[in-house]
Design a protein that fits this description.
The radius of gyration is 24 Å and the shape is globular. It is built from eleven helices and 22 strands. The protein is α/β, with parallel strands linked by helices. The chain has a seven-stranded mixed beta sheet with strand order 9-8-7-10-11-12-13. A seven-stranded mixed beta sheet has the order 18-17-16-19-20-22-21, sandwiched between helices. The chain folds into three domains: 65 residues, Nucleic acid-binding proteins (OB fold (Dihydrolipoamide Acetyltransferase, E2P)), CATH 2.40.50.140; 127 residues, OB fold (Dihydrolipoamide Acetyltransferase, E2P), CATH 2.40.50.1070; 166 residues, Vaccinia Virus protein VP39 (Rossmann fold). Helices cover 27% and strands 27% of the residues.
Length: 453
Amino acid sequence: MVQIYKAARKKATPAKDLKLKVDALDHHGNGVSRSHQPVVFVEGALPGEVVMARVQARKKRFWQAQTHKVIQASPERIDPFCPYFGECGGCQHQHVGQLPLLNYKQEAVAELLQKAAGIDALNWQAPLYDKSQAYRRKVRLAVDARRGAGKDKAAHSSVRIGFRARQSDTVVDIHACQVLTDPLQAVLPALRKLVKGLVSVRHLGHISMVDADNQLQLCLRMTQPLPEADRLTLQEFSRQQHCSILLQKAEGELDAIAGEEVDATYAPEPHLSLAFRPTDFIQVNHHINQAMVNQAMNWLDIRAEDKVLDLFCGVGNFALPMASRGAQVIGIEGSQAMVEQAQDNAHRNSLSAAFIQADLSDEKELKRLVSEIGQVDKVLLDPARAGASAITSWLQQLNPAQILYVSCNPATFTRDAAMLVENRWRVDKIGLMDMFPNTAHTELMALFARSGC
């Protein structure tokens, strides 16, 4: 007979409140209290403040805590604009203004690069920023209908539509969101009413909303086939709200069920129009994306004679602006669907660019690509949060004059930058980009040039 022993559950460590003096902010925008040992990272606290903080986690080298009460406030502390602040998991830093937060993040990134990579005396450029509200053109709403839905009124009212709570899977029921673009804000009340009345709402996982340049598009992620009654309801909603509606099935297939059967588009530059699917990655901040693309073109000084390699190219956000300047562009992306979309976008804009599907974390793939591509003049890379550690060691063989690194994670950027510096590159210029105002996200762009050049 097999005996099964269950490991004894560890007793939860009771929450503990600490009185802390906050010294600085890290690149996530969290307060840092170095007077306590180990150091404590305090969400919701600002430099110079004295707070009561509730410890959330204890690790060997640091603790994590949440501000419980502000005893001595910073003059930079402001009132949050959102009624869901503190409950919703988004927009964690509404308690500090946009520019002060950017300044703190820049200081934190500079310290991180100096300590972890030995990089100092950085040539910081002015940050890219725009409005801090009504900026988000693409969003995913979670739906929680586990307690019921449909025609039963009590069940109808229990459906939650919104965003995940802070450090939780719980859905916070959101009736309004001020960071969404005006068209998305305007449709949200009607969408909430629509979803709660669907017969199949229990099989609805989430809703993606996109305020594209040419249409308002909704995509519902369904785990079961859509009943005909719900299909008719969605088609009527599409007519009333002047939007397109798609279904994303459990297999990942997309089914356009209402609205104009045209691709959603956006413009990385005013003269370009790129199509994308709801499952494709695009930058959610239209104004910052255009400013970012423009800055990348200027920093790299893209010219007609350039041979440029665009790594993690997506649907062509950087590749096609470079191609429009006459450069010979090779874009590489891991998703075959996005490679095909990038190819279609090149055709849509009457541009010439080569797009290749490849796993940029695979050593064999990289070796093959380097051999096939040969020397290039310039490289642009825009990786996901995991960074591009596998690629940096291969860049030497491509022998570019410049490397432009667009990062959404300062920690992995620092790791990769250290590898480039070891290989005799230097940071020529660097700057932050406020793609997600009021949040812990820190995005940056850095131009690397050969040391001695």
